[in-house]
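Deliverable D4.2, example record:
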Amino acid sequence: MKIKKILVSQPKPAGDKSPYYDLAAKHGVEVVFRPFIKTEGLTAKEFRQQKINPADFTGVIFTSRAAVDNYFRLCEELRIKIPDSMRYFCTTEAIALYLQKYIVYRKRKISFGATGKLDDAQLLAALDKNNKEKLLFPVSDVHNEDLSLLEAHNLDVTKAVMFRTVSNDFQPGEKFDFDMLVFFSPAGIDSLKKNFPDFKQDKDHIYLAAFGKTACDAIRDADLRVDLEAPTAKHRSMPAAIDDFLDQMQKEEN
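Output generated by the structure prediction step:
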């Protein structure tokens, strides 16, 4: 098969179970987890320039583990004691469970969505139920979260940039011998172009897969081709989409 080695531009899963591992076993391909981007936390001095005091808020909205890490880090550096009454609203259960790294997990204080999106019905229901809370929303410097939906629900939400997204540069001698690259954000495409300014998709016979409209648009804006797009009505996840893509490729080769 043409595809033997796939780069997934995300951190390696913490556990032994992942649909990507199942994918690798089924198709006999190698899956490498190697982020094209990484996050760096703002210093306490940089954060203070926004004139936002985390102590003024009674709830926090988290959309990533990076947001969780940097929120608690900055609170510690600013010597802010987070009250036990603080409420947490997470876009996924995985992020909610990650809070156990910093706090005692109590279901009555923690709510989460099912889809990973801010417009998730389950998450919005929890926010509506607690619409008197003053909410802090930690984000990165390149965030694209739109608060209009939350404001339409009469929620008091304030964005606070707590970390920045930067290119995770490839090091001299680091191999780049992949047959497919899988992207999840425009920043990943920017990093690809920065690390490999002479990258030619057809010359190198590399397939590009993207999750989400913004990642797909970034690939096309870079004059490259999207070979595989997710989510779709047929495939809600990237592993499922790749699985079907490899199945179809195998049939064509046979």
